Amino acid sequence: MTAPAAHPAPSSPRLPSHCDVLVVGAGPAGSAAAQKLAAQGLDVLLVDQHDFPRDKICGDGLIPDTHAAFRRLGVYDEVAALATPVRHVRCVGPRGKHIDIPGQLSVLPRKQLDHILVRAAQRAGAVLATPVKFEAPLEENGRVVGARLKHGGEQHEVRARWTVLATGAVPAALMAAGLCERHTPSGVALRGYVKHDGLVGRITQLQIVWHPRMRGGYGWIFPAPGGLFNIGAGLTGSHIQSRSGKGLRDSVNLKDFFQAFCEVYAPARELMAGGQLQGELKGAPLRCSLIGARWSRPGMLVAGEAAGSTYAFSGEGIGKAMETGMLAADAVQQGTDDAVVQAHYAQGMRKLKPQFDLYETASHVNHHPWLADLVIWRGRRSPRILNRLSGVLEETQNPGRLFTFSGLTKLLFE
Q1: Whose CA is closest to 113, among 88, 76, 85, 87?
Q2: Each residue's pLDDT tens digit, 266-277
Q3: Burial class (CB in 10 A: 0-12, 13-18, 19+), 197
Q4: CB atoms within 10 A of CB 142
Q5: In whole angstroms, how large is the CA radius of gyration of the chain?
Q6: Domain 18-58+112-184+288-362 belongs to what topology?
Q7: Tens digit of pLDDT for each residue in 101-119?
Q8: 50 Cβ contact partners less than 8 Å away, ≥ 6 residues apart
Q9: pLDDT of 12
Q10: Is the pTM of this model over 0.90?
Q11: How far is CA 115 from the centre of its chain?
Q12: 259: Cβ contacts below 8 Å, ≥ 6 apart
């Protein structure tokens, strides 16, 4: 993988004491918010706890909503120049049959993607400071008026008219801000990069695999640039407790789950046996379905995966993270009245919520893998159903209806 040539501007030796908007977290949501706000002439400070370029545990798959967000941010061409283009999502069921669903897709490791997005925010005028850790909000009369940050081993207070919290799935910042409604994640995933020149040109799809030995989730292989493959396995609904009081992640060892994927799916087995693992397998939590955190409080908005911007069914969240960041930027520009800004942001998030709810329904396939066989069986025989599945990917069709009783009935008889 070749990193972007230009490194972001060095962190300022001293953090400013004031800014219009403080954005905490320079992932897709934070960088999108910072870019949009800075482009409107606001004084934006964007901070992240890591220097860039930095790695982020992710499947790296870029689906149609992500490409649409890139166009809105003006970075589509830069991303496309580095990403591996992909024409299909290959869904593989427990019986080994598959269906290839067409769509506008690509793969780019987050180390490169996030670097592109943060540099776009800088070009718009945002000031980037790293490594900076968010410790707590500054409050006056119950309103957030900035944050206490740690930078260079010292604590700093930065006052801001608005603070956008885009700190990802780890709940520490949400808890410190008093906005966390659920500490446990919605899902967990484990992924690694494997170099295997022999599989280049053979694995050309975003491959997603369901199997009874991976009940509760799925495995994936995505072709990345430079002869690399992103391979991983994830559990969804890991926060749901059984009658014994244990969540799914408490009863499943994620490394064993990944090993099961390699045992039941021949391409995964071949990739791991004949390829070279780059670094180590790494795990991360997921926050899904726009639940688990309050979206705002006076003076602060929550965006990206901190707000649950990942789809429960597929684990994809890059596109929706950027959308929430842009919604936050638009809300901040509505005026100086807290209630107006919060209401505007909530309205935008509520418009997104039905799509997340549909994917929550669709995630039943992760817990009942035989549903994947049913959809694949019918999709292989019906161009209309294949078009519907492509529409789900393009977000022009309802994904949840496929996995309701009426939807399954239509699959069988239409």
Answers
A1: 76
A2: 999 999 999 999
A3: exposed
A4: 9
A5: 21
A6: FAD/NAD(P)-binding domain (3.50.50)
A7: 999 999 999 999 999 999 9
A8: 130, 131
A9: 55
A10: yes
A11: 15
A12: none
| Cα-based distances in Å from 264 to 194, 211, 220, 235, 260 | 18, 8, 12, 16, 6
CA atoms within 13 A on the CB side of 36: 24
The reported pLDDT for the residue numbered 392 is 83
Average pLDDT over residues 138-144: 97
Structure tokens given for 168: 């990802």
At 235, list the tokens. Answer: 């559990």
**Burial level of 305, CB count in 10 A (0-12/13-18/19+)?**
buried
Work out the end-to-end distance of the chain between its first and last CA atoms, rounded to an integer number of angstroms.
46
Average pLDDT of span 238-242: 49
Angstrom distances, CA of residue 103 to CA of 89, 94, 99, 396: 7, 23, 13, 12
Is residue 121 a contact partner of residue 34, using CB atoms and an 8 Å limit? yes
Per DSSP, helices labelled H in 288-334 are: 318-332
Decide if 382 contacts 376 (C-beta within 8 A): no
Q: What number of residues does the chain have?
A: 414
- Structure letter (DSSP) for residue 335: -
Domain map (residue ranges) of the chain: 18-58+112-184+288-362
- The pLDDT of residue 240 is 52
Of 7-16, 53-62, 282-291, 371-380, the poorest mean pLDDT is in 7-16
Cα–Cα distance, 299 to 164 (Å, whole number): 9
Residue 309 and residue 319: Cα distance in Å, rounded? 9
CA distance 218 to 184: 20
Q: pLDDT by residue (tens digit) across 250-268?
A: 678 999 999 999 999 999 9
Closest CA to 389 of 318, 398, 381: 398
Residues 166 and 114 sit within 8 Å (Cβ to Cβ): no
Do the Cβ atoms of 235 and 185 come closer than 8 Å?
A: no
Phi and psi at residue 181, to the nearest 5°: -100, -20
- Report residue 26: phi and psi, to 5°: -110, 35
pLDDT at 140 over 50: yes
